[in-house]
């Protein structure tokens, strides 16, 4: 198997090292793992692409490239430049430092890479490691992802879990904020919503008197509804959420059609 890996924390992020080991195990002795990751951290860029300016790319070592662009840029670079003669069978994005559950999904560059992969017709899986008091200070905060990542991906590689729809499936995997030994299992989930968590701007005045705004997130351990991603994670389970890039609200389309008559 040929695997393309990327992330949004940057080419030197520890989570990418974890993903490299996971991908190498999945690819097997006869497979290949190729890395195209952002040269600098790209957290929060979502599905952004560098449409109005070029992206510089550099080969750092064999099958390892850094691109001065977004995670989605990295996927495009991987498919149309780095691996253009032999495209990947699978795209893996992560392992993100922090969760990409609930509303975080909409901002995540980790997810953005997989959206691009799915739009390009390649099976794509995003992986993120929830942080919390039980794992943040471990020698390896990615312990749960490292221990359970390969098995989780293997469980998703069955043909009947994928399709060839116009907006193809992608999978969002979040590992719970606990040590590997305390992971209770895996649950299929929907995307949750943290009712009291929103990004906000805080102003700060520089020594020269200029105003700067810092974007800050909200509490990450707010409960979400049963059956959703963050709820499963906070209960010690790996969450797997099937997603598509189609943002249409189909139920509302029917109501809207009636209202417009």
Automatic annotation (TrEMBL):
It is an enzyme of class 3 (hydrolase). It is found in: Cytoplasm. Binds 1 divalent metal cation per subunit. Keywords: Cytoplasm, Hydrolase, Metal-binding, Nucleotide-binding. Residues 3-195 form the Survival protein SurE-like phosphatase/nucleotidase domain. A divalent metal cation binds at residues 8-9, 43, 96. Pfam families: SurE. GO terms for molecular function: 3'-nucleotidase activity. Transmembrane segments: none annotated. InterPro entries: SurE, SurE-like_Pase/nucleotidase, SurE-like_sf. Its cofactor is a divalent metal cation. Its EC number is 3.1.3.5. SUPFAM superfamilies: SurE-like. It catalyses: a ribonucleoside 5'-phosphate + H2O = a ribonucleoside + phosphate. The keyword RNA-binding does not apply. HAMAP family: SurE (MF_00060). Nucleotidase that shows phosphatase activity on nucleoside 5'-monophosphates. Belongs to the SurE nucleotidase family. This is 5'-nucleotidase SurE.
């Amino acid at each position: 198997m040929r695997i393309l890996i990327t992330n949004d924390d940057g080419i030197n992020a520890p989570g990418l090292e974890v993903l490299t080991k996971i991908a190498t195990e999945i690819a097997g002795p006869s497979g290949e793992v190729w890395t195209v990751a952002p040269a600098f951290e790209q957290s929060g860029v979502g599905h952004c692409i560098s449409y109005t300016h070029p992206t510089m790319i550099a080969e750092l070592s064999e099958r390892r490239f850094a691109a001065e662009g977004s995670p989605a840029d990295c996927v495009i670079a991987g498919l149309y430049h780095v691996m253009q003669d032999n495209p990947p069978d699978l795209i893996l994005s992560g392992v993100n430092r922090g969760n990409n559950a609930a509303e975080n999904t909409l901002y995540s560059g980790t997810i953005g890479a997989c959206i691009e992969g799915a739009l390009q017709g390649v099976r794509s899986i995003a992986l993120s490691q929830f942080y919390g008091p039980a794992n943040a200070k471990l020698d390896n905060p990615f312990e749960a992802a490292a221990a359970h990542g390969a098995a989780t991906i293997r469980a998703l590689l069955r043909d009947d879990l994928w399709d060839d729809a116009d907006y193809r499936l992608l999978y969002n995997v979040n590992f719970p904020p606990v040590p590997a030994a305390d992971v209770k299992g895996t649950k299929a989930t929907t995307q949750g919503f943290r009712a009291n968590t929103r990004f906000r701007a805080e102003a700060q005045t520089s020594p020269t008197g200029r105003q700067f705004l810092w974007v800050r997130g909200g509490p990450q351990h707010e409960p979400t509804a049963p059956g959703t991603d963050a709820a499963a994670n906070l209960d010690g389970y790996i969450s797997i959420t099937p997603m598509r890039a189609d943002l249409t609200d189909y139920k509302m389309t029917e109501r809207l059609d009636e209202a417009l008559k």
